[in-house]
Amino acid sequence: MTDVTDLMRAKEALIYELINEGVLKREDIIEAFRKVPREDFVLADYIDHAYDNYPLPIGEGQTISQPLTVAFMTEALDPKKGQKILEVGAGSGYQAAILAEIIGKKGKIITAERIQKLADMARANLNKAGYSNAEVVVYDGSTGYEKEAPYDRIIVTASAPSVPNSLVKQLKKGGKLVITLLDEMFLIEKDDKVKKTFLGYYVFVPLIGKEGHSR
Ligand code: SAH
Questions:
Q1: Is the CB of 112 under 6 A from ligand 1?
Q2: 92 a catalytic residue
Q3: pLDDT at 157 (0 to 100)
Q4: 211 domain residue, yes or no
Q5: Taking the C-alpha atoms of 155, 158, 161 and 162 in order, what is their torsion angle to the nearest 10 degrees?
Q6: pTM for this entry
Q7: pLDDT at 3
Q8: Which residue segment(s) compose the domain that 101 sits in?
Q9: Higher pLDDT, 3 or 153
Q10: Cα(37)–Cα(114) distance, rounded to whole angstroms?
């Protein structure tokens, strides 16, 4: 049996660790980590490990990212209240929930997932957690999601062979995109020019699609 007090203790310990390591910085991002119940985004078998700093399997050969990675990417993305965000790779919906919490009710996040079963799971998880500002679409997000473009921010939680042109196109001027190419994470900033900054090494499952890997 999972003890709620143990989970809450594990959650605080994880947040403390991420702050101490200098990964979690912004007050509203720390608050989002406090509010979003990660135990509701992992498979039942892994609830006791919901606040371990590891990725966990979510079925279909995919994973919910390591909390450290979610924290690092969220800080790098620099999300603001009221923004419109596209996530590529909904998976469990956890990263989308963190962003939905930060952007608030006036913001909107669209999260694309290519595997129907995972999209259904992400949608159920986000509904249960009460994030009506998050919408899950079954779509090849390697081409972005033109229907809701342009976006203030785009986050890709799978590893791409190169930066998909569609994503840069669907980003607003002044917008930011965080994406991992093979195992190198980059921040792409779009202004009159497109600026690319290396952020560090991270491992992700492959981005599969028209502007991603072929399989
Ligand atoms: N952000 C997720 C972790 C995602 S794992 C979380 O918080 O749990 C990466 C996900 O990207 C996988 O579910 C995989 O199916 C999905 N994916 C891979 N290529 C994709 C594509 N072209 N479009 C949409 N989703 C894709």
A1: yes
A2: no
A3: 98
A4: no
A5: 0
A6: 0.98
A7: 84
A8: 4-201
A9: 153
A10: 24
